[in-house]
Amino acid sequence: MRHHDLVVIGAGSGNADVDDSFADLDVAIVEERWFGGTCLNAGCIPSKMLAHTAHIARTVREAGAYDVDAWALEDTTGFRKVLAEPGTGRILGAHLMGAQAPTLIQPLVLAATLGIDAVTLARSPYRIHPALTEVVENTLLDLGL
Q1: What's phi and psi for 84, nearest 5 deg?
Q2: Which of 28, 85, 119, 131 could make an S-S bridge to 4, C-beta 3.0–4.6 Å?
Q3: Number of neighbouring beta carbons within 10 Å of residue 32
């Protein structure tokens, strides 16, 4: 059995309590789900990112009332396909076409480089703001793994 100088149960708030003063200790962190806790990964912070995106969309919609010519990204001509190994979810390849393909491909490059499977990537807190990469997330979830 391995022994530690300090065991932290729960890594909420990005685990702000364990700082450099613990550098000489053997520290273990026990976390049920995501390092950083719910607020950091699925609660407060992601919802604020989505609220910011929604605010921008509302601003663009209302710009015409002030004679301001504004537009929001709308691309209905794009295409996305992800191939994953059945059973393991290992990403075998991806094909993305459209103006935002260079941005959308980044999570897939990350997954292929680090060996992250499709389900883990889809459920990870890794996102590029604005939330256009939800297209990739939804495609990964549609694989039915």
Answers
A1: -130, 150
A2: 28
A3: 8
Whether 52 sits among the annotated catalytic residues: the reply is no
Tell me if residue 75 falls in helix, strand or coil: coil
- The tens-digit pLDDT sequence of the chain (145 residues) is 889 998 888 776 655 666 788 888 888 888 777 776 667 666 666 666 666 666 666 776 777 777 766 665 565 677 788 888 888 998 888 888 887 787 778 888 888 888 889 888 888 766 555 556 677 777 888 888 8
Q: Which position among 4, 55, 95, 129 bears the catalytic label?
A: 129
The rounded Cα 41 to chain-centroid distance in angstroms is 9
- Read off the pTM: 0.40
Enclosing H/E stretch for 95: strand 91-97
